[in-house]
Amino acid sequence: MSIVSTGSIDAAPRKKRVLIVYAHPEPQSLNGALKDAMREHLLATGHEVEVTDLYAQGWKSAIDADDFLQHDPDRRLQVIAASGRAYAEGALTEDVRREQDKLRWADAVILQFPLWWFSMPAILKGWIDRVYAYGLAYGVGEHSDRRWGDRYGEGSFAGKRAMLSVTAGGWRDHYSARGINGCIDDILFPINHGVLHYPGFDVLPSFVVYRSERVDAAQFERLRAQLHERLDGLWTQAPIPYRQQNAGDYELPSLRLKSGLEAPGTQGFRLHLRAE
């Protein structure tokens, strides 16, 4: 894929660019059908779409010394330092650089995956580990006793949007606030807040399909209509109101939330949502 930025300004609004990162081993799965439905609808409504199909391309999951082309094999591997050097020198592997190009190109990123053991599949986590290089997704901005970098609302991906599209085998009630599995927003918090908000994305509420193994043709048509509605609101829907790190809500240098900013009784992950 060749990605070229001309820097020109057109009178007509530019088409939006969407990257779908898809992680399921079976093309005929529900996840595969949702990915196809997203791509078809986005293209039909005038957007540009790239799909990274991790299983189809045999994505290498584990980050190791082979990811850093100029790493001395006799030298101890320090992943953060090696990642920073390789990113700065253009010495990451071609597959990683290609995905980084897609991230820079995209106006929005959608991660499509099944919820396996309360998280994303290992292959998708491996995409994050390898593509989110030091200097791109973290380690950017001023780091001092006054500022801990451009992160949590700032960073390389600020101004872009992101959304999770997730399938879960359990019932919706199982993932409710009092459900046995825990609240789905809490389960997805490390991904939404940590993987997406940390490097700057505006993160939209997740699209979650429950009882995924029981979805029949009629149910899928309803899901597809709901998904299309979410896609039509990709640039207008209000994102999850996460607090920004450098907007004054956190003490320095501890980065503890200042007292009195939360609604009475608020605890846990919800402390990091702005009261609205």
Fraction of helical residues = 25-40%
Largest sheet: 6 strands, parallel
The average pLDDT score comes to: 92
CATH superfamily: Flavodoxin domain
- Beta-strand content: 5-15%
What is the CATH-assigned architecture? 3-Layer(aba) Sandwich
Secondary-structure-based class equals alpha/beta
Poorly predicted sequence stretches spanning 5 or more consecutive residues: 1-13
* Series of secondary-structure elements, N-terminal to C-terminal: EHEHHEHEHEEH
How many structurally independent domains?
1
Oligomerization category of the chains in this entry: single chain
Write the layout of secondary structure elements.
Layout: E1 17-22, H1 30-44, E2 48-53, H2 79-89, H3 94-105, E3 108-114, H4 122-131, E4 161-167, H5 184-197, E5 202-203, E6 207-209, H6 217-232
GO molecular function, one term: oxidoreductase activity
Protein name: NAD(P)H-dependent oxidoreductase
EC number: 1.-.-.-, 1.6.99.-
Report on this structure:
There is one protein chain. By secondary structure, the chain is an alpha/beta fold. The chain has a single domain (17-239), classed as Flavodoxin domain (Rossmann fold, 3-Layer(aba) Sandwich), CATH 3.40.50. The protein is 28% helix and 11% strand. It has 6 helices and 6 strands, in the order βαβααβαβαββα. It has helices at 30-44, 79-89, 94-105, 122-131, 184-197, 217-232; strands at 17-22, 48-53, 108-114, 161-167, 202-203, 207-209. Strands 1, 2, 3, 4, 5 and 6 form a 6-stranded parallel beta sheet that branches. Helix 1 packs across helix 6 (217-232). Mean pLDDT is 92; it is low at 1-13. Residues 16-231 form the Flavodoxin-like fold domain. Belongs to the NAD(P)H dehydrogenase (quinone) family. It holds the Pfam family Flavodoxin_2. Keywords: Oxidoreductase. This is NAD(P)H-dependent oxidoreductase.
